Amino acid sequence: MTYDQLLERVRYEGVYPTRERAAEVVHHVLAALGRQLTGDERFDLAQRLPVEAALTLSAQIPDTEHLTGWGFVKDLAARTGATPATARWDTGAVLAVFACLAGPDLLARILRRLPGGYALLFGQAELRQPQPAA
Questions:
Q1: pLDDT tens digits, residue range 91-119?
Q2: pTM of the prediction?
Q3: pLDDT higher than 60, residue 45
Q4: What is the mean pLDDT of the chain?
């Protein structure tokens, strides 16, 4: 997939009025994901993205604090000046496209590496093992 094709898919998913708005959203969400994702999963995802997107993801220094899915959305909202609802929408539009690019195996590895709450952001069911009774 080319970067232009990626932007068109995100534009369609997010119902954004312009390609420029889609590009802005992709940049913000990728930068935020780059601050959370580490290890081989980060490298493998970058390899499946168009070069422009891979550079944005890879240029980020991972945070020492790992955010939950909701924390990710709140952090994105704070950094971009958006409402949490808009940040959630933007995140879903971008990560749904990335889920397709990653494929099921890599996506499963990414979700295992990240704290809870990210599966829904990637458009997947959040399945958890039942916790034993205390």
A1: 999 999 999 999 999 999 999 999 999 99
A2: 0.90
A3: yes
A4: 93
Contact 128, 116 (CB under 8 A): yes
Cα distances (Å, whole numbers) of residue 32 to 75, 94, 131, 132:
8, 12, 30, 34
Residues with Cβ within 8 Å of residue 109, at least 6 apart in sequence: 40, 41, 44
Residue 31 has a pLDDT of 97
The span from the CA of 134 to the CA of 132, in Å, is: 6
C-beta separation of 14 from 91 below 8 A = no
DSSP 114: S
DSSP string, 11-34: HHHHT-SSHHHHHHHHHHHHHHHH
